[in-house]
Write a structure and sequence with these properties.
about 200 residues, alpha+beta, Fimbrial assembly protein (PilN), transmembrane helix, transmembrane, membrane, rod-shaped, coiled coil
């Protein structure tokens, strides 16, 4: 039996654990660095895009600040023109209304009065009896400044169930169209006392 004796020193095996840990840390550091670099580039791109939007908004705002002044001036001129046209075509209905009221019977009254600028008058008048409707229409036809009296329709108010039919007198509602001489509507001419008699 032979005994082998090794007189050479054996090499110690290197401990790889610190190298392994260092390599892992180095890889992690590279990953974190790459992440921060991409995030930084992304933020720079967003900042550049936001600055471009701000510049576009500022240029639009300066354009919009200039155009409203022109629009306001144009609208003001149109308003002045429309106002002067309205003032030129202004008509006074007071003499006509006064005379139409004077012709009403004692208990007759207007429910509505509409005067169109061409001299057309639309009346809705309330009366006590049908005879008052006829009398009022006849008086209107006798007026020299009124042309074309037309009674559109006459309706009676309905009696509700709470009223006694024998104690309640229904009111008649008449819709009347008439034409008034346009010269009588001007502020200067009016309806004088001779036409009212």
């Amino acid at each position: 039996m032979l005994v082998e004796v090794n007189l050479l020193e054996q090499k110690e095996q290197r401990n790889m654990l610190p190298l392994l840990i260092g390599g892992v840390f180095l890889i992690l550091a590279l990953i974190v660095f790459a992440y921060f670099v991409t995030q930084s580039k992304q933020l720079e791109a967003e900042v550049a895009e936001t600055e471009a939007e701000i510049a576009a908004l500022q240029s639009r705002q300066t354009e919009n600040e200039q155009t409203p002044v022109d629009d306001v001036i144009t609208k003001r001129m149109e308003l002045v023109k429309a106002t002067s046209q309205l003032e030129a075509s202004w008509i006074s209905a007071t003499p006509v209304i006064d005379r139409l009221i004077a012709l009403l019977p004692e208990r007759g009254f207007f429910q509505s009065f509409t005067l169109v600028d061409n001299g057309q008058v639309n009346l809705v008048v309330r009366f006590d009896t049908m005879q008052e409707v006829a009398a009022y229409t006849s008086r209107l036809e006798e007026e020299s400044y009124i042309h074309g009296v037309e009674v559109n329709h006459v309706t009676a108010e309905e009696v509700d169930g709470s009223e006694d039919v024998y104690d309640y007198m229904p009111r008649y509602i008449s819709e009347i169209y008439l034409s008034v001489d346009h010269a009588m509507l001007s502020e200067d001419v009016g309806i004088d006392e001779t036409t009212m008699e």
